[in-house]
Amino acid sequence: MEKQNDVEILIVEDNQYDAEMALRALKENNLANSVVVLRDGEEALDFIFAKGKFVGREKNSHPKIILLDLKLPKVNGLEVLREIKSNEETKVIPVIMLTSSKEEKDIVRSYKLGVNSYIIKPVDFDKFVDAIRGMGLYWLLLNQLP
Amino acid sequence: MKFPGIFIMLFLAQMLVGEGLLAQNYVVYPDHFYETDTIVIGSEPDYPPYCIIDENGNADGFSVDLFKAAAAAVGLEVEIRINIWSRLREELAAGAIDALPLVGRTPEREELFEFTLPYMSLHGAVFVRRGTTGISSVEDLEDKEIVVMRGDNAEEFVRRNNISDKIFTTNTFRDAFLTLAGGKHDAVIMQRVTGINLLGEMGLRSVEPLDLQLPRFRQDFCFAVREGDYILLNRLNEGLSVVIADGTYEELRLKWFGPPEQGELTMQDMLRLAVSLFVPMLIIMSVFWIIFLRRQVKSKTLVLKDEISERKLKEKELRKLKAQLEKQVEERTAELKEKVRKLDKSQKAMQHVIEDLNDITAELEAEREKLEYSNKELEAFTYSVSHDLRAPLRAINGFARFLIEDYAGKIGGEGRRYLDTIRENAARMDQLISDMLNLSKVSRADINLISADMSDIARSIFHEVASDQEKELFDIRIEKMPKVVCDSLLINQVWQNLIDNALKYSSKSKIKKIRIGSEEDDKEIRFYIRDWGVGFHDKYKSKLFELFQRLHAEDEFEGTGVGLAIVKRIVHRHGGKVWADGEINRGATFYFSLPRK
Hints:
The complex is a heterodimer. Chain A is an alpha/beta fold.
């Protein structure tokens, strides 16, 4: 569980292939040192707030960045986002939305809930790698948390 | 013949009245003539000897007998009611009785009654003490003391004619005679007959009337009938004439006044005078008056006849008018009924229409709800497509790449080509999904109208869409176009797709030229974009704007067949139209119109 307290990137993605591709994209950008992948919104909330099956995890140890798929089983991505952004402790964590399309409604809603950025998962993997690189550069290396 | 004049007059009257007026009257007043054979008259109880009551309480007297005789001569029976003078006068004036036998003719009574010819004139006389001499004319009375009854005709007479300066009055005739008999004053003046009768009653032999005429002190006595009752008047006149002529009058006079004595000889003379002078004169006057009346009646009859015929005519006209009016009223009523019926009908029709409209509204409401539901379903579907269809494509594309990267050596050249094909098709599938989502979006998006400069839009879109190389190769000219009110984001998409097509389908042609412009009329503005590219066969021009319709193979010109469908959808949503002209290998012109608003 030590590892869980030292997470740099949390990926919440129900599609295992998308998750695998995300990991590979991170790896190609040398960003995959400590990545945790969770499969649904409930797990994500348990992990972030150290409850459920993640009871005992150091509460104050937050991931440096969360990649959150919009469409998730059980608790959807927007709901997870709301929980994170409405908590004083967790709302500083940068959350990047992963979405399949640029459906404006989703994006607008995400921004209203306080999302920090979003990445459209392209069909062309090369473009995805590019997007991940840009995201990683900014949020992990350049962006300093207050 | 005692009174020859009377016969002449009666004969004359008979000729004129009997043949003419009476016959005429019989026609004009049939109800009044000869039908009432009994008439009612009134008589006074105490006017001796003219009107009195006998021992049986029946009317009697000279005037009553004379009236009965005159009436009997013309076939009238007489019923007599007895009453005091003043009441009888009123009754005759009111028509309660038909005639009176003894009425002195005076101007004021002439207005109330009609008078027959006078049958008797009473004259005044000068009464003196027996043996008095020196009075032989009216002038001799001048220095004499005269006694009269106060209020009597005699007083009026002596004062009016200045008979004497010395006039004395008493309360009654009796007092006057007593005063004279007592040796006081010189003479009493009063009605002769009344005076003689009174002296007889009083047994006063020392007073006697002088044989002196007082011509202006005279009273004519007649029968009187109701005013305007000329029929009865004529009959009584006729009867009176008969009884005077046949001696009945004389008989009655003898009966009531006795044989003429010395004093009454004068009266006989006077009667003769009256009958021979006044009666013919009155008869002549009556005749003229009757003729005049007859003429008047004639003319009035004529006028009446005219009036009657005129009234009949008017009545006829009125009846005609009434009938017309009734007819009109009936017609109008019928018209109104018809209108009411029609209105009723229209109202019912309106009600049906309203009911139908309500039904239609309800149907439309239901349809709208269905549409809303479908719209939501469509949205959910779109969402699902964009998320769920893409995930497998990403996996196909991604893992094919991993294969290439991780196992390049084992796959070989041909294997590599297969994997590239897989990746390309996944990408194409992704493009199709994107275009479909786009089409769906432009169909559903709210339209935000703003004023947009079409020249600016076309120009900036061209710069956005064309690659650097294309910008160098193409001769592009964009004319000045008007500003239009539209959703500029959607219209951007229109220009984007059209310019994109023009560039794409000119890419293999020699002439690389694009012209963009517009023309307008008062209804709409038509925009066009013309190229000199591959064009299309005229027969396909209706298919161009259909979804997924392509005229070229994918390897010839890439594309999904959605672009023009999007153009059409957007233009339709603005109320405009799209169309195109083209010729194979000569180029194409695409048009769209926007209505002026």
